[in-house]
Amino acid sequence: MHSKNKKIKLNAIKTLGKVKNEKNISILLQIAKTDESTKVCREAVSSIGRMKSKNAIPALVEMLNDNDPQIISQAIRGLLVFKGDKEIDEKLKTLINHENETIQALKRK
After folding, report:
1. What is the DSSP letter of 80?
2. Sign of the CA dihedral 61, 31, 25, 74?
3. How many domains does the chain have?
4. In a domain, 42, yes or no
5. What is the CA angle 58-41-5, rounded to 5?
6. Rounded distance, CA 14 to CA 41, Å?
7. pTM given for the model
8. Half-sphere exposure of 65 (CA within 13 A, CB side)
9. Which candidate, 46, 37, 51, 54, places its Cα nearest to that of 75?
10. Which of 37, 47, 55, 90 is most buried as measured by Cβ atoms within 10 A of its Cβ?
């Protein structure tokens, strides 16, 4: 995951998500918050969502505050698994008035 090669890094991140070990959530969150590559950050958030774990919810909610619409979109997708949970629904409703049109459209869908 610390490779300079983006393909290697992306594959390592995908593998962490597929393993579905909740201990990896904090590692993936740290990558999502700090890596310079949007692709890498987006894949880290996707891997968190891929776990489909309630323990991933705080990390996904935190990523809703990111500046990158692609990252926010991945966080939304990860949270949609928990649609119907009152707290999650409320968090997602706040995105209806998001400044980015893509996020607004995604939320309306």
Report:
1. G
2. positive
3. 1
4. yes
5. 145
6. 11
7. 0.87
8. 6
9. 46
10. 47
